[in-house]
Write a structure and sequence with these properties.
single chain; 64 residues; alpha+beta; two-stranded antiparallel ribbon; 2 helices; 4 strands; 44% helix
Length: 64
């Protein structure tokens, strides 16, 4: 098993926490689920925004 580190702003983490808590999963579990989805489906669950040096210029568009 490998470790993955993600840099997330405090405000994004704070906004995500209650949503994940309501779904009864941890941040780590959510990241594992996302990575598993990519591995199994062979695609991302959202469109990748334009980036500049790793900083998002616009919001993600999630597939429904």
């Amino acid at each position: 098993m490998s470790n993955v580190t993600a840099n997330v702003s405090d405000s994004v983490r704070a906004a995500a926490h209650p949503v994940l808590e309501k779904a009864n999963i941890t941040m780590s579990e959510y990241l594992r689920l996302c990575i598993a989805y990519v591995g199994e489906m062979g695609k991302l669950p959202f469109e990748v925004p334009e980036t500049s040096k790793g900083v998002m210029k616009r919001k993600l568009t999630f597939f429904s």
